[in-house]
Amino acid sequence: MFRRTLGQPVLFAIIYTVVAAALYFSLGVVAQRALGLTPVVFLVAGLFFLLAAMTYVEGASLHQDRAGATVFARYAFNELVSFIAGWVMVLDYVILLSVTAFTATHYLAAFWAPIGRGALENVVALAILAWVAWRSIRGFARTRVQRIAALVVVDIVLQVVVVVVGLAVFFQRDLITDSIHLGETPTWGNAIFAVGVATVVFTGLESASGLSGELRVGRRGLERLIASATISVLVLYVGVAVVAMSALPVVGNETSLARNYLNDPMVGVAEAFHPRWYSDPLKYVIAAAATATLIAAAGSAMLGLSRLSYALSTNRQIPSVLGRLHPRRGTPYVVIILAAVIAAGLVLPHDLEFLVGLYAFGGLLGLTIAHLSIVVLRYKEPDGRRPYRIPLSVRVGGGDLPLLAVFGGVLSAGAWVGLLITHGGARWVGTAWLAGGVALAAAIGVAGGYAARAAVVLRPVPATPPSPSTTTGKDWNPPRSERR
Fold it and tell me: CA-to-CA distance for 102 and 129, rounded, in angstroms?
């Protein structure tokens, strides 16, 4: 079993918080590009999620260290590949912070329209980021899990209501299928971009894997986790997409969902219901739940970012000052503040499609590295203790080749290349971020006197750990491998 105290419900809650938030902010962007193909795109995203879930669970069960894909890559490849995996996930966490803060203001605008525009929009978004940063510096309280779990239940119930009632009221298959002329509406490029964007659901797995050192989950619990999370994603994502494209169908090569509700698509779905005696209350409940979920997802992103950055700093992959811990709270306050500032700068242009495209760039590359790492680890550490193993393996070259991890790696790599071709922001800004990171890794490697290409596992160097008397069970608690 995994060690320590947290169990399967905690993992599911953290994963589904990001999954639900991704639906709240990505539905409009996907519908804008995929049009009537949107339900199929989310079905493909569900497949990506299933493959990613199996990969992350096997990797986290084998190496129970914080940081997810960067840990898998360190043991499978070397410090450079490990850094690249961590560096692109840092980008994803920062983008997730900005996206959730930005879209939360638009859901709040359901209650008072000025919140979703102009200077007030910026003020509210920046206030959300400041709140998330402050809460993150205070530390991750285990009592917070109960609030997240309650929010997850609300989200699931709401989405089930939307799917069931929406299918009964709106569903007409021809409304969706008659608008699909693949290659024209949507174009191949738009369809490929939409698939890349829809895969953002897997990022919750990266956040949850950061807690692997604090978990107590057996093999059957891990299997139930994968099954429950995947079924939730498939049924609710595809169901909501079918309802959305039935309620706001494609007309003239565009849908009102993207034209009028790009930044708050679930509000658009609620407003499509009639009569108003139940659509208005539904809209306000969805807006409130979406706002709370988006802010909670921002908190999960900051949690993942802080743990990942601490791991990178203690392994001398980024400057150690970024992983410096708060003297009382024991949290990496420097990187938390810096991430909030960068996210605030990304909010100001108000360009959701650019942010989500850049988010997909980091997510798909990190996912590709994670899949490939699991394949390599099957050969490098064949006898390693794995409470969970990806099914469908074949004996190849003296080792067990996990076919689903190979398939997942091919799919995510193909989607990443497709995203580079179809989205200029991902191509240029994402590539610049990656190149800058590699340059940073090279500089640190030279200054530290070791080659970034060396296939080694470095002994972590703690970044100003807090006094034991000030670190409580509810605050930051570095894993044993990072303590002195």
Answer: 10
Please list, in sequence order, all residues whose beta carbon lies within 8 angstroms of the beta carbon of residue 417, skipping any fewer than 6 positions away: none
Report yes or no: 56 and 226 within 8 Å, Cβ to Cβ.
Answer: no
DSSP 3-state of 385? coil
CA–CA separation, 454 vs 435, rounded Å?
19
DSSP helix, strand, coil percent of the chain (3-state; round to 5)? 75, 5, 25
> Does 20 fall in a domain?
yes
Helix or strand (DSSP H, E) at 4:
none
Q: Cα–Cα distance between 432 and 426 in angstroms, integer?
A: 9
CA 52 vs CA 93, 174, 269, 366: distances in Å: 17, 33, 29, 11
Q: Of the candidates 13, 121, 116, 51, which has an alpha carbon nearest to the alpha carbon of residue 392?
A: 51
* Sign of the CA dihedral running 191, 192, 197, 201: positive
Looking at the structure of the chain, the number of domains it has is 1
**Global confidence as pTM:** 0.84
Domain annotation covers residue 25: yes
Q: Structural domain of residue 374, as residue ranges?
A: 11-453
Taken as a whole, the chain contains a residue count of 484
- Domain CATH for 437: 1.20.1740.10
Closest by CA position to 230, among listed 54, 439, 380, 405: 54
- Is 476 contained in some domain? no
List the chain pLDDT tens, one digit each, 484 residues. 334 444 556 666 667 777 788 889 999 999 999 999 999 999 998 888 888 888 888 888 888 776 678 888 989 998 888 889 889 988 989 999 999 999 999 999 999 999 988 889 999 999 999 999 998 888 766 666 677 778 888 888 998 999 999 999 998 888 888 888 888 889 988 998 998 888 776 666 676 555 545 555 455 656 666 777 778 778 888 999 999 999 999 988 889 998 899 999 999 999 999 888 888 999 999 999 999 999 988 988 888 888 888 878 877 777 878 878 888 877 888 999 999 999 999 998 888 989 998 988 988 999 999 999 999 999 998 888 888 889 889 998 888 899 999 999 999 999 999 999 988 888 899 999 999 988 887 777 655 544 444 444 444 444 444 443 333 334 344 443 343 3
C-alpha dist (Å) from residue 169 to 158, 267, 280:
16, 17, 16
Residue 393 covered by a domain: yes
